[in-house]
Amino acid sequence: MHLRYLAWLACLVLIPVSAVLAFKFGNGWWWLFAAAVLLSLQGLRDVLQTPRALLRNYPLLAHFRYLIESIRPEIRQYLLEGDEEQTPFSRAQRSIVYQRAKNTLDKRPFGTQLDVYKPQYEWINHSLQPVDLTDHDFRIQIGGPDCSQPYSASVFNISAMSFGSLSAAAIQALNAGAKRGGFYHDTGEGSISRYHRQHGGDLVWEIGSGYFGCRNPDGSFSEERFVENALDPQVKMIELKLSQGAKPGQGGILPGAKVTPEIAEARGVPVGTDCLSPARHRAFDTPIGLLQFIARLRTLSGGKPTGFKLAIGHPWEWFAIARAMIETGITPDFIVVDGGEGGTGAAPLEFTNHVGAPLTEALILVHNTLVGLNLRSKIKIGAAGKIVTGFDMARTLAIGADWCNSARGFMFALGCIQSQSCHTDKCPTGVATQDPLRQRALVVPDKAERVFHFQQNSLKALRDLLAASGLSHPDQLGPEHIIRRVSGQEIRSLANLHFFVKPGELLVGVPKHAVFELFWPLARADSFAAPAPVKAFEKATAPTSAAAVP
User: Fold this and answer.
1) 442 near 430, Cβ under 8 Å?
2) Taking the CA of residue 402 as centre, how many other CA atoms within 13 Å lie in the half-sphere pointing to its CB?
3) What is the DSSP string of 119-147?
4) Are 63 and 167 in a shared domain?
5) Is 337 within 8 Å of 366 (Cβ atoms)?
6) What tens digit of pLDDT does each residue of 442-496 get?
7) Do residue 176 and residue 283 come from a single domain?
8) Is 473 strand, coil or helix?
9) At 459, phi and psi to the nearest 5?
10) Domain harbouring 173, CATH code
11) 74 with 215, same domain?
12) For residue 83, what are the CA distances in angstroms to 80, 204, 302, 344?
């Protein structure tokens, strides 16, 4: 029996021991016998119950955690929280997810819980003429002029998390919840497993540099295998991953010891062999080649919406892709912008904290570029990066996104307690492990309900924010609706705080903004390479305020 059952095992052993002592030394030992029996029965109840995965994996022991949680408001500052801003994800945000996933009351007394005079505090302006909204199932149509099978997507979906990083039970619960709620489930680059197919929820098939699910034995792209998966009616969109927020610019490897028959089946790799995700793609090496590959995938999929996901790094590389769109006339149906602060997968500390542009700056840059090229109406934009609450969605939609994806929010809905042991295969709640005993604790029907309720209740929160603002749909949100405190004495709307390009402005000139002035003229549609000379950049940026660069 595993060590995590040690407390329960000790109680079971104590039953016969205490009974012998009671018979031999008298009635006083019967109290120990009674306590051992009661604790053993409680441990059995913990293992057999389904709502709490942590109790199923840690019978008896997990009760100590729940005891501390029950008195958290009184001891938070001293025992649990520390500096809230230094924690990976605030307890307040996790609490919102848990309450909404469990479909319980998420109201709080005593007004605002934040310091409203602290810089970076943000809010949405309300209207004196709020509207009455009953529907919260907000949809966005994805599919450009070359797409013959457009997809009506929810504005809140499950972001990319692969089978392999998540357990089979977690994948099943996510997909079952997506099926019930009518929103999509991004497969992550680990491809489509049997567990993605089991419940029939909408899938966005993410294809990374390893071409898992559509690769030849040598790791190159396979048209034949791609078509097999892409034509599946359950697959609604094709997403080519260029980079991700967790560790942009870095590849990855799944050690052969972890490549089980099920993972090998999904990814199209040999069992027990190291599974490599290169840092870059082999199917193309130029911006024009990227767009030609996107067009090829769209054709092979039967005209399904096809796009790419990226975390913004060098601005000239993104500009090069945009220039290639104009030069070739080929446009993706969508672009998903992944913020550098996002990502649920394990990554080196420096990558998680210091590589990749944050979501706000990355999203505004992509949105601005497409607006400036008059391509914004053809290309939809999704966004991901620590988006959990209704306000997170409202803010992200206001600055340029058409829809939002969340990874950690749905992980919390599954029961993740952010133990940060994902990379050890010892996830205490069965979410991020391939250990069959640990993932047994995650009961699929129960967690699927929580996934469904979290998504639905989050959309209801977004609906209520829109109604209070006098708006009827998320597409009416703009940067003027979100206000930020810049200092103790100054507030500004995001419309005034950030730079926004005018429609068609890049077709007739260069916007008066440092990043566009510096990098747009130098970007090339036929190359991702850095423009030369680098000294020209240094000279051009020397007089520019760093605050002006997104």
Assistant:
1) yes
2) 21
3) TT-EEE---SS---------EEEE--TT-
4) no
5) yes
6) 999 999 999 999 999 999 999 999 999 999 999 999 999 999 999 888 999 999 9
7) yes
8) coil
9) -70, -35
10) 3.20.20.70
11) no
12) 9, 38, 52, 22
In this structure, is residue 318 part of a structural domain?
yes
CA distance 489 to 236: 49
Amino acid occupying residue 152:
S
Instruction: Please name which of 494, 389, 469, 400 lies closest in space to residue 114, comparing C-alpha atoms.
Output: 389
CB-based contacts of 38, cutoff 8 Å, min separation 6? none
- Indicate the length of the chain as a whole number: 550
* Number of domains the chain contains: 2
Residue with tokens 């952010």: 418
Within a domain: 493: no
Residue 381 lies in a domain: yes
**pLDDT tens-digit series, residues 123-146:** 999 999 999 999 999 999 999 999
Instruction: Tell me the whole-structure pTM to 2 decimals.
Output: 0.85
3-class secondary structure, 236: strand
Q: What does the DSSP assignment read for 84-125?
A: GGGSSS-HHHHHHHHHHHTT-----SSS--S-TTSTT-EEE-
Question: Is 42 a domain residue?
Answer: yes
> Is there a single domain that holds both residue 319 and residue 170?
yes
Bridge partners, 151 (sequence order):
142
Which span out of 35-39, 264-268, 396-400 was modeled with the highest average pLDDT?
396-400
